[in-house]
Amino acid sequence: MSQAASRALGFVTVGVGSEQIKALVGAYLGYALDAMDFLLLSMVMPLIIRDLQIPLASAALLFSATLLGAFVGGVVFGIGSDRMGRVKTLMITILGYAICTGLCGLAPDFVTLLVLRFLVGLFLGGEWGAGAALVTEVWPPAWRGRIGGILISSWQVGTALAALVTLFLAPAWGWRAVFFLGVVPALLAIWIRSSVKESPVWEETQRATRGTGAREAVEEAGPLRPRNPLLDMFSGQLRPRALLVSLKMACTLFVLWGILAWLPTVLASPPRNLSTARSMEYVLILALGNLIGQVAMGYLMDWVGRKRAFMAVFALGAVLLVIYPNVLDLQTLFWLGFLLGLLVFAPMGGIAAYTGELFPTRMRGTAINWGMGFGRGVSILAPIFLAALAPSMGLGGAFVTLAVFYVVAFLALLGLPETKGTEFQPG
Length: 427
Description:
Layout: H1 3-8, H2 18-52, H3 56-84, H4 86-104, H5 110-138, H6 141-152, H7 154-173, H8 175-180, H9 186-195, H10 200-209, H11 215-221, H12 229-233, H13 239-268, H14 276-304, H15 306-323, H16 330-344, H17 351-358, H18 364-378, H19 381-398, H20 403-413
């Protein structure tokens, strides 16, 4: 698109002010509470297994149902965020996952809880792409890596919140009370509705798509015809890029969800035999490393570029995945948990900025949500995969096999371009 066409379509240059801060706060809190509601299941799983008297295989289905819902929600609400806006989608998804999490506390049996966890996942999966697209579009390119790292680090805040809620509520009140507290994010949806403004570059794209762009832009760039953004992603020159992003995200999230689903159970099982309260300390140190690693990932991306940063953390993460499960000394394991969070979870700090820069505005929300949703969809198999290996290797031993997936993610990066400094345009 020529410079004249860009000006006519309302090419948006942004600084940093109150609107950027509000967008970041809304998306940050939304994703933090998204994480809390998701991970409450992992934290209270031993209590659910005992109370509902379900086998390990059925417990794995609860994780998988949530991930399946997240995959479906990522597709549905990703397209929705490109069609009806980032802010409206963000509000709807936060309200949805809050209500459904609260209802989990009322589930009378396993089947009801299974259905509710699918619905929780549906809304959780849709929230990420809307918030990430909003934040990456309203912040300047020079800040995009750092802000993306800060945004995704909210997941670690949610992890810590889930652990603290479990620590203080579960022993006295049980797992149902823990889920009841998950309704709190509904209050955030009200604030977003009244305080957060829509992305200007998305609004300009919508005007151009509907034929209200300037005549000069239409003559030089051609009209932007509305299409299904998901189909658009996987067509023409963008198809190889979409496939590689899908592979990278699938491998990354397979590893992470495998760890998050079973780590508390691994710590509570022989030979470590930690109590629920003690295992939460190990989860909290993991969350601290995760928080620092993902923020640092954003700064690293803005410094050395997107690809080099990703390659470094995938390589180092694969090594750590081989070491961590074989450590039996509890003090050493505690501090290695910090490194596990710092390196293995670091790639998530770069996905908002990198995926957003790889695709144009008209499909950016879909692309970001597709990557996360597809990864979560594939990750449905992660808890089942590790549970299947557990009888012969133990859950801890099964974690070693996750290093292979980070090697594949590293190789997928070789086919993707560097995008540092990309300016977002309508279209």
